Amino acid sequence: MNDSKSVSTQLYGRWLTLARAAWAIIAVFYIGAFLVSVPLKLTEIPDFTTSTAEGVTQAEFLAGLAQLGISPTGYIAFQQWSSILVGMIYLVLAVFIFWRKSNDGMAILTSLLFIMFWGPFETLARLNPVWTVVGDVSAIVGSAVLLLWFFIFPDGHFEPRWMRWLYLALLATQVWRIFQPDVYQRSFPLLIPLNNQDIVCACVLTTSCAS
């Protein structure tokens, strides 16, 4: 059964060339954007002038850090480097998957998911507001790839065939989320987990390993 799945998701000829070329273009773009964003990420300072969490004021938050023996500078450095580390992990996983199975359509799609999980465009928008638009486009493409992955895993096909229409309907809600986040959360509370990249990453890893 595993062999049939492996064969059914193989790409050949022109489709394989196009898939690899698309992956290379997207990977180079995202990795380049990531590298440019790292110095900017290291200069980002959390805003402690407002509430840091629901019902927690700036003073209470800083007092809590002091009780734990953590300085504000140390906390900021942790936030900065942990964000960079997460991005590096996603990109390394993406490259590894592509390197191992660059002729498998589902593997290429999975690799693209990991590339798009961590978008540096909010940070890059500090350089130029145009990156905000790039981030919106990236979010739409990422949502399309993510939903497609869940709908066609593991054999690369919509089963049953009418599921493609459900895919398009859910994709429309995700595009709506990008431009109307508050309305979306009130209208589709059950779909909010789709927007949590940590939950999605865990699901992708679990199902990929299980297959």
Question: Uncertain runs with pLDDT below 50, 5 residues or more?
Answer: 1-7, 186-192, 196-200
- Number of alpha- plus pi-helical segments: 10
Overall geometry: elongated
Kindly give the count of domains: 1
In sequence order, what are the helices and strands, one letter per element?
A: HHHHHHHHHH
State the helicity in percent bands.
over 70%
Structural class by helix and strand composition: mainly alpha
Counting DSSP E segments of at least 2 residues, the number of strands comes to 0
Sheet with the most strands?
Answer: none
Distance between the termini: 10 Å
Strand content: under 5%
Protein architecture, described:
The protein is built from ten helices and no strands. The protein has about 210 residues and is mainly alpha-helical.
Question: How do the strands and helices of this protein lay out in sequence?
Answer:
Layout: H1 2-8, H2 13-41, H3 58-67, H4 72-100, H5 105-117, H6 121-124, H7 130-152, H8 163-179, H9 181-187, H10 197-210
Helix pairs in contact: 2-4, 2-5, 4-5, 5-7, 7-8, 8-9
Keywords:
elongated, mainly alpha, 211 residues, disordered N terminus
Structure described in brief:
It contains ten helices and no strands. It is mainly alpha-helical and 211 residues long.
